[in-house]
Amino acid sequence: MQKTHVVIVGAGFGGLKAAQALAKAPVRITLVDRRNYHLFQPLLYQVATAELAPADIAYPIRKIFRGRPDFGFHLGEVQKVNLAEKKLYTDTGDLAYDYLILAAGGETNHFGMESVAKNSFGLKDIEDSIVVRNHLLRMFELAGREQDPEVRRALLTFVVAGGGPTGVESAGAISELVGLVLPPDYPHLDFSQVRIILLEAAGRLLAGIPDRLGDYTFRALQDKQVEVRLNTAVSEFNGEKIILKSGGEIATRTLIWAAGVRAAALANAVDSPKASLNRLVVTPALELPNHPEVFAIGDLAYFEQQGRPLPMVAPVAVQQASHAAQNIMRHLAGQDRLPFVYKTPGILATIGRNKAVAVMGRWQFSGFFAWVLWLNVHILRLIGFHNRLSVSFSWAWEYLFYDRVVRLMMPDIENLREKYVRKP
Amino acid sequence: MQKTHVVIVGAGFGGLKAAQALAKAPVRITLVDRRNYHLFQPLLYQVATAELAPADIAYPIRKIFRGRPDFGFHLGEVQKVNLAEKKLYTDTGDLAYDYLILAAGGETNHFGMESVAKNSFGLKDIEDSIVVRNHLLRMFELAGREQDPEVRRALLTFVVAGGGPTGVESAGAISELVGLVLPPDYPHLDFSQVRIILLEAAGRLLAGIPDRLGDYTFRALQDKQVEVRLNTAVSEFNGEKIILKSGGEIATRTLIWAAGVRAAALANAVDSPKASLNRLVVTPALELPNHPEVFAIGDLAYFEQQGRPLPMVAPVAVQQASHAAQNIMRHLAGQDRLPFVYKTPGILATIGRNKAVAVMGRWQFSGFFAWVLWLNVHILRLIGFHNRLSVSFSWAWEYLFYDRVVRLMMPDIENLREKYVRKP
What we know:
The structure is a homodimer.
Chain A: E1 4-9, H1 13-21, E2 27-33, E3 37-39, H2 44-48, E4 58-60, H3 61-64, E5 71-75, E6 78-82, E7 87-90, E8 93-96, E9 99-102, E10 106-108, H4 114-119, H5 126-144, H6 149-155, E11 157-161, H7 165-181, E12 195-199, H8 211-223, E13 226-229, E14 234-237, E15 241-244, E16 249-251, E17 254-257, E18 261-263, E19 280-281, E20 287-288, E21 291-296, E22 301-302, E23 304-305, E24 308-309, H9 314-332, E25 347-352, E26 355-360, E27 363-366, H10 368-381, H11 385-401, H12 413-422
Helix pairs in contact in A: 1-9, 5-6
Catalytic activity (chains A, B): a quinone + NADH + H(+) = a quinol + NAD(+)
Organism (chains A, B): Acetonema longum DSM 6540
InterPro entries (chains A, B): FAD/NAD-bd_sf (IPR036188), FAD/NAD-binding_dom (IPR023753), NDH-2 (IPR045024)
């Protein structure tokens, strides 16, 4: 008899954890993803700012599960989930399942602002980060030969929207790229014209962090020449000018959008109730209503605790993945399923060299020690000894030499497009 | 008074050497390239076979020339050279010159075979190498779920055309990727079905190398399960089937074309006589006829020595670059220009782990010692301590663990295309 088949969609933090948690279960697993690698998203902004290479934060999925004969990987994008027939349709073939774990994560949310969706840059995948890197470097090349001082100033104005960890870390990283790394490359460019602006719609940075640390973050960013504007929301961006909800304007070519996330488009391929941000409603045991064989976790799932939806962050996905795997094993063993309870972990964000904020249980701290903690936690969470070594080496190199080695404008996107058209 | 302006087109081995050789000359230099980095082309095949990351073999041009106030970099593609007015037109602005050094290198030559140009893969730039890497990995993903044994066999047949160093090294690297690295990733795939074929139109590999070393190379490739077919030329490739000039056929999805080079398209933008392979004819002093202020060097230049054109290899470009720079300095100092004489350096090619061939003057050797020499020469020729360290580390890692860490299918080309269209 064929073993029970568990299909997991998405090789992010949640999907990977679910596959690992099922390692000893009497099931065979197929992990489906449209990429062949797991991506360590929290460091994407470092690829975008020329500090890390894509391969430093991406890890081949097949390699993670080497030596597990009951594990299979299916490269493809899910187009439809047929809950009644227990079948998945992907662009590269169909899969039947006994249990299904949906862990496709989230995508950038522009809240319906079409001009922002069209002209801003995201930071959700490797392609995003390479596009941002190319763009940032191109702005300096263009500014270096621009005669019109107003245009030059716009080219050298970099705006990040969103005061969460991604926005704060990105703004800090751009500031260090501009302030510490690039000036010797452009001896004839006046770097005092550079402006870096962080916009946050709410009244504070890093929502949920204690006031003291929020203030520290604010001041640390200001020390790095980042203009932080709280209570400031974007309403339009045509590629040359941001229009704020308040009516103000910012002339810039660069808007990095880290201000919103919603459930991945996969949610639309599943005929099941959705809640806010297009997330799939789940039961206390993390199943879809009326489909106890289908679980949704992480950014894709809408789960309330103490009357509020859980945030779209990695720890939720990881804890829910373990829980969903456990519930499958309990079911196979004839036991009742258990309701999920989220345990809030710490908060950790860096603003740059020697500076970070950390909350762990009752402990709160900021500065050098928090920064060392940030470094170590991120190194340890990377998969594989090679990537840990490689990232450690890159960070040590930058720290010592104020140098970021990956400041390459590539791949040449237009060129790739042409080749892609040639080889479909 | 403005300093004499030397414009150099191309930041390959030749262009870089010319800019370095002019460091002490009383001139200002502008280096023009459509990329912002220098590329170490001899190791491109290692990016294509998932051993090195692009950033390992690419180096930001501006960083090379840091601290030289008379050096400028212009990012752009040359569209027209107006010899009469001493002006260059690029897609990002015009440049006037006093002296011009054309060092744009070569491009893939398909000898007019349209089907080959359309469906084969090149190995001349980073984009090429990423496209090849994506393709090779995709073939294994497709083969892993292919039911038809004939189609599966075609998916697992990899053909390299061209028995020069690039072809030999690529075939060896594909063999080790397939034989040593990938099998644990695809436990259900029968790797005995894989075929790697190296086609060479002439009767021997590595033209110009002594017979003994040519035989060694042939045997070393056979030991690595590479089928070497001499006196075999391609006439057509429709993406699924290669038709040989002899009439035979090979069912495959992969043809890597390392069988021909010609002068870069820049040659067409210069109104000056061309010789074979579209190369610009130059005088003994490396100038264009009737334009003593314009030099052409390397792959772009046609220069005969002892009745034969110089080969399109890096040492020619480097030696000619020094010579052109010297002639400019002699001219500025009121001295006569000197004719160029090429001194043949050695030959060095690796077939894989522990195996290489080397010719240095009267010395010829093969095997482990030649391989160690190959490693060292390539490490030393890379620019920058960081890249040397990083490449050494990657090679040591592979050697010890039979692992290539960059086996990532990315960037997602279709996705990039969409983004590119959104952000022109």
